[in-house]
Amino acid sequence: MADPKGFLTTPREEWPRRPVRERVRDWDEVYVPGALLPIISKQADRCMDCGIPFCHDACPLGNLIPEWNDLVSREDWRAASDRLHATNNFPEFTGRLCPAPCEAGCVLAINQPAVTIKNVEVAIADRAWEDGFTPPRPPDRLSGKTVAVIGSGPTGLAAAQQLTRAGHTVAVYERADRVGGLLRYGIPAFKMEKRHLDRRLDQMRAEGTKFRTSTSVGEDIGAAELRARYDAVVIATGATAWRELDVPGRELAGIHQAMEYLPLADRVCEGDLEVSPLSAAGRHVVIVGGGDTGADCLGTAVREGAASVTQLDIYPLPEMERDEDVEPWPTYPKIYRLSAAHEEARDLRTAPAADADARLFAASTLRFTGDEAGHVRGLHLVEVDERRRPRPGTGRTLPADLVLLALGFSGPDRHDGLIDQLGLAVEPRGTIARGPDFETNVPGVYAAGDAARGQSLIVWAIAEGRAVAAAVDRRLTGAERLPTPIGPYDRPMTA
């Protein structure tokens, strides 16, 4: 604790964002380049080095937050990087994309603004790359054991890196043409530029991890054949089976799933396309779903030049402060949060009829209507109460010629045949069943991440990858060598 009075004398200061009208003209990250390092040491000083740091429990990775806060406050960046990477393979990802449940669990947050843990994390990660503190770490010797990892999202990448560094020969199979899963084709570049992903992948290749792109296991290669080739298989395909909206008019053209829309925008940024076939340019866009994926669609549509963009959230407008009776500290509260995309929509007035920024809260879609050509032109909605019952007399119609469904995911997509070919047991909700060691009902086949846990946060995905790697290594070597941050049945803290 470098400054024992830091939390009393220093106010919370976050990484400033670029002006809205500047940043919506490009796909670069929304934050002011270079503006974080000058403030971050003082922000780290606000950490109280608590006797019982609840931020540890709020973070499934068990990040050593007070330790690296203290090191940053002293500007010992190398040691801070070592402590950060001791629990997190990809802090440059989580520092940009995680909603920071650790900050909700910060003891200071009981009665003051929390420590800017997320900003400290990304500052350490970026400084580590700049100063060369993250060289490849290939194993000293190979074990002679082989592992296939199916899926190259954060879970698959974390598992692969841990197992490669443990000396196993690891191949990652990815059905897309590039590695990264939703980090590549799903997360917009304005939230995380792909250079951060590419840099980490180069490190993994130098360590010995092999990548097999454009390979769908179950289609391009049989799942049973793959299992026969390797000593162990880790399934980390994510939860890509999107939820549908079963209302009249769903069959109209112009209604698409968010994960049909977002990857095309990413491909434009990759240089694969000049213009997205689903571009929002000049169109009235309505996004159904109030979560992070919906906000990603919002920021993307704004950058594409939509005529208007409105986001529907079936939940009521959240309160500005935590309700201690319902969601007491240190749980992660549902409060009103203004993401970069919502700030942009608010300032640009993309949705004049919205309750706040671009969002209509407590809004439920009744039906879609279209024109004679069969293209959607309107979305009919109604306000609902806390039990999602319609409120009489609250119906209205929004103009809509592009509707994006961002309703979440129910489990892994089964169209490739992977689950059926291996004969994997599936939970009633559609996720892959597994035991206490992450192993499925098929010996030597493990399931981790959203494919087994269900839709979750990136920090949980990385924790799952590290934990399943420990389980696989234990099977292959008979020894406890890798950390296990979580078990398959662990869940976030709730009241």
From TrEMBL:
InterPro entries: 4Fe4S_Fe-S-bd, DPD_II, FAD/NAD-bd_sf, FAD/NAD-binding_dom, Glut_synth_ssu1, Glutamate_Synthase, Helical_ferredxn. The keyword Amino-acid biosynthesis applies. Pfam families: Fer4_20, Pyr_redox_2. Residues 38-69 form the 4Fe-4S ferredoxin-type domain. PROSITE patterns: 4FE4S_FER_2. Gene3D superfamilies: Alpha-helical ferredoxin, FAD/NAD(P)-binding domain. Pathway: Amino-acid biosynthesis. Keywords: Amino-acid biosynthesis, Glutamate biosynthesis, Oxidoreductase. This is Glutamate synthase subunit beta. It comes from Streptomyces ossamyceticus.
